[in-house]
Description:
Layout: H1 7-10, H2 16-25, H3 38-65, H4 69-77, H5 86-103, H6 109-112, H7 115-130, H8 134-138, H9 140-150, E1 158-160, E2 163-165, H10 174-190, H11 203-207, H12 216-245
Antiparallel strand pairs: 1-2
Amino acid sequence: MHTTNHTQFILSPVTGIMSDVVNSSAGIGDGIETFPLCDYVMQSVFIKMTGFQEQKMKSVCWSLASNDFEYRYELTKKPLGECSSYEDKEEVYADIISQIKKRDTRFKISDTLNKEKILSETADKIKSTFTGTNLSVWTQKRFDEFDIIWSQVRGSHFANGETLFFKSGSDFSLRTIYEDHLYRHRNRIAHNTQSYQQNLPTLKTLISESYRYENYFFYFSILALIDNVIIELFRNYLTLLDEFAE
């Protein structure tokens, strides 16, 4: 397989961070005296996973630029940004597809991505990593709710053509959840805006239909879903580079 300086990192799953924190916190126990640690640990996992993915997105762009001078020229004309917003991630996603299509005009994303497999493997990874651990015990209700929320996700909700997350006005939308919940929470933690805001949600927030999406396990699964899509597309890209090099 064709490799770049960033290949190993790009192909490394973001879910490895989840396994690391489970192993690191296993000796703490799950008694009531450990519950105050919950928010600190979950925030740490979340911000590490978002940071990991942001760096991976940048690495993908640099790898594409090393093999396409026209793409490199366009990339250097505009700032890459943090690659944390939805727009940044969709742009990188579309760039990989564009580079693949340059080398394979018959490319169809449906031939490359087994969406049902990605969905089931993403959910299985979350459950197998956290089931029975102190992290799930600390937030048992949220962990139990994860299955219910994830059951709403369909293959039609992601990786449709050059759209990473399909957005519909009335339908369940991963893009809306990413922008209104995951990304906002990422910014709250990264910029410590909670230091001057109320620590607890208002009653109006608690009774809103969308509050259930404020769920770390669901956040982890969305990040893992994006990661799995990017990894599969990048593998396809590397395979095509090998074929053109022969």
